[in-house]
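Shipment paperwork, digital attachment
Item: protein structure file
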Amino acid sequence: MAVHVRLSRHGTRNRPFYHIVAADHKMRRDGRFIEKLGVYDPGQEPSLVDVKEDRLQHWYERGAHLSDTVAKLLKVKNIKLARKNTSKKA
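Attachment content:
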């Protein structure tokens, strides 16, 4: 199962906010997800980005792909993720 960390849109018309979720890549944008990792509200000034960094790191280490938008939000928030070195030495 390929997991993606992406935004799921919620809110009303002309007043969106987004959940940052880990979801199977085959699921719809606003469909079923595995875990909610945070919230992004572009309507606030400054924009609110709240992320569970430990859970985000957990999914990233297990091979989850970040959407372009989530990657940009993390860069603005100055959150750095690193994959564990999984190569085995013989």
